[in-house]
Amino acid sequence: MSALVDRVRVNDNNREPRQPLVLLVDTSSSMADDLPDVAAGLDGLRAALARDPVARNRVELVVVTFGGRVTVHGDFGEAALFEPPPLSASGDTPMASALTQALDLLEAKKQAYRRSGSIITARCCSC
């Protein structure tokens, strides 16, 4: 994990409290018919984040897809710059591996925040 921790960066020009967000997207073969709706949902999220002045400066997100294999699409980025990746269905559903990857990404991001002195906000997804 140390190589991942060394790679994760923080925009030191943005002094807002931060909220990291990993979006896990199932792109397995069984999702083929649903991926257009998922893509539309990601576009809606992009638009909503861009409109919200607080979220635009605080949320940093990355997309992890899992379909046949786990793929991390880029690095954490500020919500104002979020562009959803193209989605295509293939393979099985390695959800456990995707969850492990997401937890590793979050831990690396938290360590980067600590190194930079950024404030981390925490919110339960069910709140």
Q: Give the averaged pLDDT, no decimals.
A: 86
Rg, Cα atoms, Å: 15 Å
Structural class of the secondary structure composition? alpha+beta
Distance between the termini: 30 Å
* pLDDT < 50 runs, ≥5 residues: 4-10
Strand order within the widest sheet? 1-2-3
Classify the beta-strand content into a percent band.
15-25%
The largest sheet, given as strand count, sense and whether it forms a barrel, is:
3 strands, mixed
Q: Helical residue percent?
A: 40-55%
- What is the H/E string? HEHHEEH
Number of helices: 4
Strand segment tally: 3
The backbone outline, from C-alpha atoms, is flat
Structural overview:
- This protein has helices at residues 2-7, 35-51, 53-58, 95-116, and strands spanning 19-26, 59-67, 69-78.
- The protein is of the alpha+beta class and 127 residues long.
- A three-stranded mixed sheet has the order 1-2-3.
- Strand 2 (59-67) and strand 3 (69-78) form a beta hairpin.
- It is flat.
- Residues 4-10 have low confidence and may be disordered.
Architecture blueprint of SSEs:
Elements lengths: L1 H6 L11 E8 L8 H17 L1 H6 E9 L1 E10 L16 H22 L11
Parallel strand pairs: 1-2
Antiparallel strand pairs: 2-3
Highlighted features:
three-stranded mixed sheet; 21% strand; single chain; alpha+beta; 127 residues; 40% helix
Short recap of the structure:
The chain is an alpha+beta fold. Helix content is 40%, strand content 21%. Strand 2 and strand 3 form a beta hairpin.
